[in-house]
Amino acid sequence: MNQNTSQEFSARIKKAGVNPYVDIPFRVSRAFGKLPYVPITGSINETPIIGTLVPTGGGRHRLYINLDMRKKSGTKVGDRIFLNIEFDAVSRPMILPEKLQQALGNNTEAKIAWEELPPSRRKEMLAYLNYLKTPAALEGNIKKVIDILTRQKKTA
């Protein structure tokens, strides 16, 4: 992977559930190598963005176009946008959301299961939780994480 190479392409903003996104062309995914989550910086229609390419399988990625990105770039679902992206080498530490920390503190079984997860799995979950934009989405997904961890511990 050449981390200094910017990738340019156009894509139409689609929607999965309530989440707007663009599919990343395979040639662009391939340019970033075999990284599952790819931190990127770049632009949408010349408006600066910071984001993460999320794996969708088969070596392909998707970029979620959050509300802030859409507002700043003046775009909406259905629009064709021009993207210029490159690998973002700036460290993005995974933060344990305070509400998840509280939930784990209130559920010993889930806390033990969390601590037994491989670091890569914890990082994946934290990346997703830190990506959420609304308190309601965060709270709902933390409940799901606790449920998964509790079920996982019972089947172990």
Explain what this protein looks like in three dimensions.
- This protein has 156 residues and is of the alpha+beta class.
- It has helices at residues 26-31, 67-73, 98-105, 108-116, 119-131, 135-155, and strands at residues 7-12, 14-16, 19-23, 38-44, 47-57, 60-64, 80-87.
- The chain has a seven-stranded antiparallel β-sheet.
- Helix 3 packs parallel to helix 6 and helix 4 (108-116) packs across helix 6.
- The longest helix has 21 residues, at 135-155.
- The mean pLDDT is 90.
**Could you name the CATH homologous superfamily of the largest domain?**
AF2212/PG0164-like
List the strand order in the largest sheet.
1-7-4-5-6-3-2
- What CATH first level of the largest domain would be assigned? Mainly Beta
H-E string: EEEHEEEHEHHHH
Can you tag this structure with a few keywords?
single chain, 156 residues, alpha+beta, Elongation Factor Tu (Ef-tu), domain 3, 2 domains, 7-stranded antiparallel β-sheet, 7 strands, elongated
Explain briefly what this protein structure is.
The chain is of the alpha+beta class.
